[in-house]
């Protein structure tokens, strides 16, 4: 087989993997909205959606169809090009995160070893931070292009919140990188699967807690949903949006939550590793599928925690949000980084 045909096969494999992961992410995001409404109903002692299909399982499809069929409204005073670009950028940035996440080990198909990861780059963590930063532009552009004062105020809140909490998240992550000596997500997962090595949550419990809190802020989840504070800013930064443009903003939030859960599972909880189980006793393809299932279970657990917190803790005031980020999380992250450095120096 020639080098050109091998390259074409590799490109085809990656395209198929991209299509599978993107459509799976969209499907999971669609039904995460249903799960959120059911979790909220259980916590509030009510039935939740139950009319569209058995047990209400068709409710997400009905909601999606409703958004598609709604009238497309673009305010006459808005910047039309940027108004359209905003939700597209938010959705694209949310989906791009999945490229460096190792969803499983390798499978053997048609005589080839196929990695269940779109791109194993040696700066995967930096790539994630770069893509997450692009998502803020989707909020800012949408809020500014709407030519609505409430949308603009919400967009400014979203941008300042993201900048504040990305700093604490990055410092918390530096402590983890000091212990792993790599920026590759695949390598971090492989280290946690090595014999005699514990998951990174055992080495960086405070770092994980800081990362988790910052991830909630980055995803604009309650109690950090200040850019969407309905009681203060009407409907938030997507005040003027309708139809699928609004749907893109709403779905991007859920996809961000899914990707954040996958990254936290990979960084701190072994990724597709199954605790107290040796995957080598299984056939290669079966082990890969079981690993994908293990990662999905960890993602579902994190998503449930996100939802549980949303329907339990009230929203912060904006000054409390900023105080928590700058006066509590950043000093704690710096202290954790220095303590990690001292521990490595002492035991190195």
Describe the structure.
Helices cover 67% and strands 2% of the residues. It is mainly α. The protein has one domain (72-347). α1 crosses α2 (59-69), α2 crosses α9 (243-268) and α5 packs parallel to α11. The model has no long low-confidence stretch (mean pLDDT 86).
Tell me the total number of β-strands. Answer: 2
Mean pLDDT: 86
Order of helices and strands: HHHEEHHHHHHHH
- Report the total helices: 11
Q: Oligomerization state of this entry? A: single chain
Strand content: under 5%
Helicity level, as a percent range?
55-70%
Secondary structure layout plus pairing:
Blueprint (H helix, E strand, L loop, with lengths): L2 H41 L15 H11 L10 H17 L9 E4 L2 E4 L8 H22 L3 H32 L4 H9 L11 H14 L11 H4 L9 H26 L15 H27 L7 H30 L1
Antiparallel strand pairs: 1-2
Helix pairs in contact: 1-2, 1-9, 1-10, 2-9, 3-4, 3-9, 4-5, 5-7, 5-11, 7-9, 7-11, 9-10
